[in-house]
What we know:
heterodimer, A: mainly beta, six-stranded mixed beta sheet, five-stranded antiparallel beta sheet, 11 strands, 0% helix, B: mainly beta, four-stranded antiparallel beta sheet
Amino acid sequence: xxxxxxxxxxxxxxxxxFITINCSYSVGISALHWLQQHPGGGIVSLFMLSSGKxxxxxxxxxxxxxxxxxxxxxxxxxxxxxxxxxxxxxxxSNQFYFGTGTSLTVIP
Amino acid sequence: KAGVTQTPRYLIKTxxxxxxxxxxxxxxxxxxxxxxxxxxxxLQFLFEYxxxxxxxxxxxxxxxxxxxxxxxxxxxxxxxxxxxxxxxxLCASSFEVNTEAFFGQGTRLTVV
Lengths: 108, 112
């Protein structure tokens, strides 16, 4: 069993739709990261969370420590949001664990 | 402010050879971590350095090693390359351990 599970694996949306990507983890964590990876490999760190909620532009990330669950929301999705979104956690032993990623395609 | 720089961007090596990859962190950042990304295994943590000391190590064989210099630049070395080592190797830097990380573009290693 993976320490970090993401859903869905693949997601296709129409431009303008509200998108939610979920991440569940099974280890104690000190922080959770949401990463964005575009074709070609470059990774951008979107959020680092240890509690509550963060917002950056059209992106919102929430975390529920008790339920060991985080969500990444994209409001008013745009084709440029098409990318792979990866959930990563830093475990109590300082090890990093990664989800397998959610491939998002936003169609104009 | 320059971002995280990884060199080289692309590399082709033969089985059995060794390779050294370099990562220059953002100026002022003291923590550097390394990751391997393959289609089959996804992203996996290799190791993390802070102020020239290895803080954490992932579950990789001893052929994978790294170090960090006094200027925070880091190198990772893979000896006796295997076909399965073909991957995108990413490094990330942060000001301190467990602060926001900034990723480099990666080094794509192909072992033939």
